[in-house]
Please model this.
Amino acid sequence: MENINNFEERKGMFNQAQYSQERLHKLLTNCDTLNETPLIFDEEANMYYYEMIANNYQSIFLSIYAKLNPEEKEIIGKVNSLLHQFIHSFPVFQKIYPSIQNPSHTRIIKKYDNWIKISGILTNLRQHLEKAMEAHGLSNPDLEEDKIK
Model:
């Protein structure tokens, strides 16, 4: 009877590990898709794609948090916090209202310096997450054909 319980326990652990791996893969794939046009505004989500990428990275961080060592938690946590603070404090797009009498002439301007900084932090966070995932066996295994190249 004990062998059956051990088998069921290991099977449950495997299923959980497989589910976690699939979830991380989906989040990263979604980030890659959004990153093709990060400055697009999604009306339904009411945010820009780069904000959605940041939210996905936060989900990845929270998903792998238990596996990280204290140094990884601190570094990734700081970069993640910096990213979200910067997105909130220094928007990439700003509405300009030329006059109160004629608000229909509103313009939206792109703050290029803010985008360059946010883009850099997004890249930095992605690199830290991927490095940590690989170190803890949470990344997708290399395919044989990739090893040959």
The chain has a mean pLDDT of 87. The chain has one domain: 2-138.
